[in-house]
Write a structure and sequence with these properties.
With about 130 residues, the chain is an alpha+beta fold. The chain folds into 2 domains: about 50 residues, no CATH class; about 50 residues, no CATH class. The strands form 2 sheets. It has a two-stranded antiparallel ribbon. The chain has a two-stranded antiparallel sheet with strand order 3-4. The longest helix has 16 residues. It is elongated, with a radius of gyration of 21 Å. The protein starts with a helix and ends with a helix.
Amino acid sequence: MKSLVIFSSLFILGIVALPHENTFAAYTQSSDSLKICLVDSEQVSGSGISYRYIDRDLLLCSEGCEMAFKKEPAKYMNEGLKCMPCGEDDANKEISSVHNGVKYYFCGKGCKGKFEKDAQRYLDKFNEN
């Protein structure tokens, strides 16, 4: 009886531990059948709004969500924030600058100053890729 309980427990744990479908993918530019807005986590009807933030292509459902994202991208990004002048994913959400209504983040005040001096140069560099 004891071995039956142990076997049953291991079997149940095995089922729980099986890899499940990547649910995170549904909250970005998701699978072919289901597209979920990065900002409000609602299903996107039609093609939605494609938006490129530095080096990431994002899917948003409306202009309102696009405006919310531009105002505070760090709130919706779950990966490292890109510091454009140095090209690393080490930006600090406390060090930021707004250019054309979009907030960008930097690893330090030096990179922030470089960006503010010639923002379009850095934006063009990432739009080429």
